[in-house]
Design goal:
By secondary structure, the protein is of the alpha+beta class. Helix content is about 20%, strand content about 25%. Helix 1 runs parallel beside helix 2.
Amino acid sequence: MRASFRTLLAALFSIGLLLGAGPAQADVVTPQDAKPLRFISYNVCGASCPLPAETDAARAAWVSGLVAEIDAWDSDLIMLQELCYGQWTLIRDRLAQRTGEDSYDSVWGAALPSAAKCGQWNANDRRFGLAIFSKGKASFVDGTRSVTFLPEDPLNPTEDRILLCAQTALRGVAVRACNTHVDFNDTTTALQVPKVAELVDAARQGGEPAILAGDFNQVPEHADMNALYNHGGGSAGRFQEVDENDKEQFKGDGCPQTADRCRSGEPTASPTCSDHTKETSKIDYVFLSYEWFKTVQGDALPCPPGMSDHHLLRGAAAWER
């Protein structure tokens, strides 16, 4: 792959996201008008979505596209799911070589010791899992990283899923950052979502702010999500979600236009991203502990060719203080 293609792919990614071409863009939050605390959650489909070629140039092009969006959003925390180990090291090394406030620290967690298609990123290390990136060198606190395997339905065993957490600094404030990818089987999802809520709450030290992001494989209004949301029918959680106040997405009796917020949001999985995605739905989230953050904002962005089978979700908020 020649350098010209690498440049084109990066441009397609950043331009496609920033211009907002694609579905569900009626209420776009731009980098210029977003609140100061910035977040990204993205299922990058590292093992299932093939690169155009297994070359250094193709890998560098993909990383350049992602980094362009991280920079455009001035992102503080980035949560990536379905991430191959070789993919993570390329992003990590690209961001770590920077100086000062433009640098990022990172933690990784493996859900699977090997995924065959991760060989496109590193033929010698095919681990598959999650990562969190935090702005600032050495921003993660040593000894606070945890990887917890989530429960499974014994009658319906499935792929291992994890919750990755660590303490870091968000604009100088100590926070607990957590990332997960919940299983799509209904009986397992029902077990894993409440467990994630329980684990994140237990990990917080002294009531510190919590940011929980990931692919939950469940829609906002489903009862499984009650353990996370602090509002909306039977809710038992402590979180708000960045894209919960986009009235363009308020639908049905449970989401009247008179409401200030609703368990809803722009779709993050749709056929526009991949022909193997049959339904259009919101299943990716950035949750913020309600007592610490206010004025949430969010957008699910378009899907440039060859990047992922999910929309990138970006969010913003301000401190509640």
